[in-house]
Amino acid sequence: MIKSITGTRSYIIVDFGDRRVKIQGELTTAPAFYGYINSIKNWEAPFEDNLITESEREGIVAQISKYNNPEFPVFLENW
What we know:
The chain is α+β, with helices and mostly antiparallel strands and 79 residues long. It has one helix at 54-67; strands at 4-7, 11-15, 20-28, 32-36, 74-77.
């Protein structure tokens, strides 16, 4: 379950409580964030040595889609 989503103009950090993942992308003036699914590769420290499996990646994408805030939407795309 997502605890929070924070970030900058070029990435977001999705906090799941016990683990976090960084997703590269772009912030638009809408405002909306367009993230690149292919940038979801590793968990953040201290779990950076753990690769994210395809199944985990699909779960992360599904959870972000459900979590979305209408005032600041996050869209994930295959790039």
